[in-house]
Amino acid sequence: MKLKQSMCAAGLLLALLGNAHAQKAVTIGYATPDLSSSFWVSMTYGVEDEAKKLGVKLVKLNAGGDANVSTQISQIQDLSESKVDAMVVGATNGEAVRGAVEHAIGAGIPVVGLSSLPASTKLASTVGANHYEMGRLQAQCLGDAMAGKGEVAMISQQQGQSWADQRRQGFLDTLKARYPNIKVVAESRNAITRNDAINLVDNWLQRFPDLGGIYNAVDDSAAGALIAVKGAQRRGQVKISASNLSQTAQQMIKSGDLVCTSAQQIVTQGREALRQAVAAASHKPVQRDVQAPSVLISAQNLATVDLSLLSAPASYRP
User: Fold this and answer.
1) Domain 27-123+265-291 is in which class?
2) What is the pTM of this model?
3) DSSP secondary structure, the chain, as one string
4) Is the pLDDT reported for residue 183 higher than 70?
5) What is the location of CATH 3.40.50.2300 in the chain?
């Protein structure tokens, strides 16, 4: 599905909703894994702002972290019991929430998977980015910054997160194909927060004195990695790359502390997921798979990027 075509259909969807609103307000349930994450803050902005534009009611529930799987399962069950018209779900763990999601679908509630997808073939629509491509772009950038040689470590985020798994694979495949002289010497799939990354990278810098680069599946861990690198007085020696473009990541790029980030159109995805959910709730045609394009951002092109498609306004609070 071409994103541009879907965007053009948004106006038609709004018109189609007019009669539906006169009869019954559409209520969309939104289950998000972690609103302490800059990524999900931007995603939620897209969902909320589009809900306002379409005049639908949004019930927003935050699991409070990717590790809080049981909390999210309960929240999805609550949305089912409240008989929302459709759901948008960004999963804490795709396999773990599958049962709750498929129960909702069985009860006649269409579910749209957003970015971190529930592991179900019964979703009405999936909306996300090409995460493998994001990993590939980051490997290309970090590999070039390291002059094609040296030791790299990876903060890959939790196993079971489809986006994290795909970014990781894109990064590894690209290193193997294009940068055979770069060796992955360490990887963590348990360091989730910024503080986790600080402690982890402190340890890595002691264990691997020749470490030359750190891959980050998200920009929050990149910020933690930078704190550790600065503390070890190795700023500039250890190259740091990331994915996503939060306000923090933008500042890190401007200061030269982040060599690049492979960014996705996060706000666009949130808007698109809300549109697809409303279409499904209104028994209108939906697009089964929508992918927003990714872009590699560095100090050279940051000023030319349309940030409104990628991240929430600095003033936004979910």
Assistant:
1) alpha beta
2) 0.72
3) --HHHHHHHHHHHHHHHHHHHHH---EEEEEES-TTSHHHHHHHHHHHHHHHHHT-EEEEEE-SSTT-HHHHHHHHHHHHHTT-SEEEE--SSTTTTHHHHHHHHHTT--EEEESS--S-TT-SEEEEE-HHHHHHHHHHHHHHHTTT-EEEEEE---TT-HHHHHHHHHHHHHHHHH-TTEEEEEEESS--SHHHHHHHHHHHHHH-TTEEEEEESSHHHHHHHHHHHHHTT-BTTBEEEEES--HHHHHHHHTTS--EEEEE-HHHHHHHHHHHHHHHHTT----SEEEE-EEEE-TTTGGGS-GGGTS--TT---
4) yes
5) 27-123+265-291, 131-264
